Amino acid sequence: xxxxxxxxxxxxxxxxxxxxxxxxxxxxxxxxxxxxxxxxxxxxxxxxxxxxxxxxxxxxxxxxxxxxxxxxxxxxxxxxxxxxxxxxxxxxxxxxxxxxxxxxxxxxxxxxxxxxxxxxxxxxxxxxxxxxxxxxxxxxxxxxxxxxxxxxxxxxxxxxxxxxxxxxxxxxxxxxxxxxxxxxxxxxxxxxxxxxxxxxxxxxxxxxxxxxxxxxxxxxxxxxxxxxxxxxxxxxxxxxxxxxxxxxxxxxxxxxxxxxxxxxxxxxxxxxxxxxxxxxxxxxxxxxxxxxxxxxxxxxxxxxxxxxxxxxxxxxxxxxxxxxxxxxxxxxxxxxxxxxxxxxxxxxxxxxxxxxxxxxxxxxxxxxxxxxxxxxxxx
Length: 379
Known about the structure:
By secondary structure, the protein is an alpha/beta fold. It folds into two domains: 1-32; 81-378, Metallo-beta-lactamase, Chain A, CATH 3.60.15. Helix content is 27%, strand content 17%. The protein is globular, with a radius of gyration of 22 Å. The N and C termini lie far apart (67 Å).
């Protein structure tokens, strides 16, 4: 009996040691890994504290927003791994492009190339602007903590992306702000535009402070003749366990000489869409989130039907649905967003663009619209 007790004590000791080691590794990783970025401090923090959208150490949405919703964690975890067709059983199509293709875009043309999820290359008035350039393979601080892309290649390798005049970020979540991507492109970017507080991450990753401009909601700035406006969205932020909503999240108005673009970032449906449309619309293109939604968190992501309605609200002439077709971040089937938004757009007479990843939309000239997500099953 003593021998058995001694053996059990030894086993429990080993288990306790392993748990302690895991906790220690997690603590060290969270506190010292560069992936997590940095918190605003000094003059940056002082400016944040003057924002009317910041109170008691965090940013708030215009409407009361319950971020976590009514999540049944055990049920959700089970469905995440078992229920539905959450990833395609094929590498979804990608149209390859070259640096020369980008270099040869005429200044008078406004061209948008979707890189999957919410990453887009916008060419406007001769300028090259990347929106939420998350080009990594996994939207997480470590490859083991997230699922891989649905496509096995990008339209253009990160190393081949030419010099960029600007990069615009909507918020600091891993599927929008990627450490690896920033480290590779930061020296080829003239200027970064971000919501309040997000610049702290960029500075910790080696981006010079003078190359970063942070805007509060409704603040506007002129960039080489292009008007940029940080506008509200309904979401939240955070990259670690203790920094939720410590940096701001935004949508963006991007108005050039010949075209007017709206980029929703991540957002639940709310009245801000109508206000933005009334103030800055109509828009030649509304780039709207459409994916990673669930009835358990209805306030921080839109259902596809709300995406179509939000396009009407902002007075968008053309809808490009994003935030889908790249990663498994919710419980719905991978192609559910595009199927539902296609139906909703038709019912609301919203003109819809559905490009293959890497296929360009040229404002007033070319609007790709094919059901490419069904092609594999039909072959």
